[in-house]
Design a protein that fits this description.
Number of domains: 3
CATH architecture of the largest domain: 3-Layer(aba) Sandwich
Number of helices: 16
Strand order of the largest sheet: 9-8-11-10-12-13-14
Strand content: 15-25%
Distance between the termini: 28 Å
Shape: elongated
Radius of gyration: 25 Å
CATH superfamily of the largest domain: Succinyl-CoA synthetase domains
Structural class: alpha/beta
Helix content: 40-55%
């Protein structure tokens, strides 16, 4: 049923406006400029035409079938608009309008929920930014830009956070499929979206921002059956955060330890900060899950030691290289370098060195995932070690995570890594956290 909302063939924008300051203008403009190929019908009794398209006084005046209505009108008239949508036979609605449970107006929110249920319409919102479906070139939201296509789908209760994610994803060339703002979750909630994403062939990894979950048992049941990585950032851990969540979307945060237990039972990876959410989603969407047994390579000893320390803090194991690995490393390393794990190439960032040591470390049966760190020095072209890692890992089924550390001089190399589906991070610590979540996800799969 959610396909009629998230994959519609026709859309009515109720509250469409020629006023650029209003959500009804922005949403309609985003749908048109994004390249959506379905039918679009502006609805506003006070407009004859919006953005060059004939405007209908009511959804009831549209002669054709309407799959989805996006509602951006004052909260007080939403019930009447919903009644019209129900009589029209609209299959789903997205209510962008605010002024419901998040400001204490639960009676109005319950009223619109009941109307939607009476007409068998699924409803996202109210108080949502809308949604994006990159496969359909559909930006049915207030978010100003369409991200690149990709395998990550994002479900969020926060509109501002959704905006920030798309901006960040665009800057990182991080591909997204669906971005859905659930808002107050008066009808459709996290579990409903998860069920849709489980069956969605374009979604490879699911990322969530959660302030509160009302139907915890159903969430656990749905999430535990999904064979795709789910990583969630649950806020409201503190007393002050819980109060803020209640005023933001009317969500009751609940005891944080309960969420920890629920996520563990459901096989959901919990991120503690925004950086971990983004970084881990990137790794999980590109790389296979990994057994423990981490190898580290760097041309700078300090970065390798820092990464090794964090691995130990997170409980990751750095195995000693096998005798065969030690022998092969000795044949290619400078005399002053020690064949160990972590491996320091003693400042050698050449193509030959990085290709040789990457291939050798990946061939070690005790190493199940590899972190390659390059610390930029002006005398070396950072694209050369990047090309070496790409070439050496081709055809290997072990995940390889990279961390190219430097300033503007490494931009081309970073782009090269990203284009070749190599997760890259500007700091080794961030790479280790993402790698740790590949290991966590492998353990989740082994328990199912």
């Amino acid at each position: 049923m959610l396909s009629k909302i998230l994959e519609p063939d026709s859309i009515a924008v109720i509250g469409a406006s020629s006023n650029r300051e209003k959500w009804g203008y922005r949403i309609l403009d985003n749908i048109i400029s994004g390249g959506y190929s379905g039918e679009v019908y502006p609805v506003n009794p006070n407009e004859d035409e919006v953005l060059g398209i004939r405007c209908h006084p009511s959804v009831l005046d549209i002669p054709e079938r309407v799959d989805l209505s996006i509602i951006a009108v004052p909260a007080g008239i939403v019930p009447a608009v919903l009644e019209d949508c129900g009589r029209k036979g609209v299959r789903g609605v997205v209510i962008v309008s605010a002024g419901f449970g998040e400001v204490g107006n639960s009676e109005l929110e319950n009223n619109v929920r009941d109307i939607a249920r009476d007409y068998d319409m699924r409803m996202i919102g109210p108080n949502t930014f809308g949604f994006i479906n990159t496969q359909l070139h559909l930006n049915a939201s207030i978010i100003p830009q369409m991200p690149e296509k990709g395998g990550i789908s994002f479900v969020t209760q926060s509109g501002t956070f959704g905006l920030a994610l798309v901006d960040w994803a665009a800057s990182q060339q991080m591909g997204l499929h669906l971005v859905v703002g659930v808002g107050n979750k008066a009808d459709v909630d996290d579990s409903d979206i998860l069920e849709h994403l489980s069956a969605d062939r374009h979604t490879k990894t699911i990322m969530m921002y959660i302030e509160g979950i009302e139907r915890g048992r159903r969430f656990i049941d749905v999430a535990s059956r999904i064979r795709k990585p789910i990583i969630a950032l649950k806020t409201g851990r503190s007393r002050a955060g819980s109060k803020a969540a209640l005023s933001h979307t009317g969500s009751i945060a609940g005891a944080d330890r309960i969420y920890d237990g629920a996520f563990k039972q459901a096989g959901v990876i919990r991120a503690r900060v925004i950086e971990e959410l983004f970084d881990s989603a990137l790794a999980l969407s590109i790389s296979p899950p990994a057994d423990d047994g981490i190898g580290i390579i760097s041309n700078g000893g300090g970065a390798a030691i820092l990464a090794a320390d964090l691995c130990e803090d997170l409980g990751l194991h750095l195995p000693d290289p096998s005798d065969d690995t030690v022998r092969m490393l000795k044949s290619v390393l400078p005399a002053i370098a020690t064949p160990a794990n972590p491996l320091d190439t003693a400042g050698d960032g050449s193509y030959e060195m990085f290709k040789d040591v990457t291939g050798i470390m990946l061939s070690d049966p005790g190493i199940n995932a590899l972190l390659v760190i390059y610390v930029h020095a002006e005398m070396v072209d950072p694209c050369l070690p990047a090309e070496a890692v790409i070439d050496a890992s081709e055809g290997c089924d072990k995940p390889v995570i990279t961390s190219w550390i430097g300033g503007k001089g490494i931009g081309t190399a970073v782009k090269l890594l990203e284009e070749n589906k190599m997760p890259n991070y500007p700091l080794a610590e961030r790479a280790v956290v993402a790698l740790n979540n590949l290991v966590r996800y492998k353990r989740i799969l082994q328990k199912r």
